[in-house]
Amino acid sequence: MQQKQVSRKTMLVLLALQRGELTEHLIYQNLAKRVKDEHNSEILRRIGEEELRHAKIWEKMTGKQVKPNKIKAWFYSILAMLLGYTFVLKKMERGEDKASKGYSALIAEVPQAKQIAEDEDRHEQELLDMLDEERLQYIGSMVLGLSDALVELSGTLAGLTFALQNTSLIALSGLITGISATLSMASSEYLSAKNSGDKNAAKSSMYTGIAYLFTVAFMVLPYLLLESYVHALVLMLVVVVVIIMLFTYYTSIAKDLPFGKRFLEMTLISLGVAAVSFVIGILVKRFLGIEI
How far apart are CA 132 and CA 127, in angstroms? Predict the structure, then answer.
């Protein structure tokens, strides 16, 4: 396909696709070099080769050479280190980073582009499904630790907020409760996994404990930063919602799960428990007459 046979708009779309494929080729190749697991490294290398092949197809249509976006490639490489390469790659393959604007016009002028895109996307998805990242094997353990910490500690902190009305005491009580619960939860997960014959019981326990401990730290932080217990309570509840939103989004991308229903369910449970516990704190303070 020569350049003069397509409109300027379509040519720009083709060039964007070409550059996008080259950029993703660079991302996959960078990740393949950093991943220690040989199985995953080989899959990433193969996907990178697929992307390069796509770029050459678009290059034949444009008749031009373009360079990859190295800044974008660097950014995604860093993001993969923080959140895991499976999350980043599945996010990319969902089309959020594809040059999709004007694609309908592209197909109208270059009919074979649709079949090419569908075939190559199918090949890449087959390869992505073969990835086996360790942290995704323990998503269940992480969800267990995070959800338990959110429900238990949000209720505890909300109850303590009105009962104590002192951010330092609330933070101290929350930390003691949270650390004790972390050890208890991690131990329970270890014993449960061990009794189920899981050879990686220690890792399951570790992921559960880490998720629980980090959740505790972020939820207690408002009481360490603010003097007003009311403002600290509000900020803590905001933190709870943000943690739920971020983690639900992460799992929805990495594990191909629905976001909205899971986010709403966990949010309602956590805030509902916090509301009930806050009322209990009021009742305890009023009827027992405890003053601190």
Answer: 11
What is the dihedral angle through the alpha carbons of 40, 97, 79, 77, rounded to the nearest 10 degrees? 60
pLDDT in tens, 139-177: 767 777 788 888 888 888 888 887 788 999 999 999 998
End-to-end C-alpha distance for the chain, whole angstroms = 80
Q: What's the pLDDT at 105?
A: 57
Helices (H), the chain: 8-34, 38-62, 70-83, 85-91, 103-109, 112-128, 134-137, 139-164, 167-195, 201-225, 229-254, 260-288
| Residue pair 187/205 in contact by the 8 Å Cβ criterion | yes
Nearest-angstrom CA–CA distance, 55 and 59: 6
This prediction's pTM: 0.66
Query: Can you tell me the distance from the alpha carbon of 69 to that of 48, in angstroms, rounded to the nearest whole number?
Result: 15
DSSP state, residue 94:
I
**Could you give the CA distance from residue 291 to residue 46 in angstroms, rounded to a whole number?**
67
- Per-residue H/E/C for 242-268: HHHHHHHHHHHHHCCCCCHHHHHHHHH
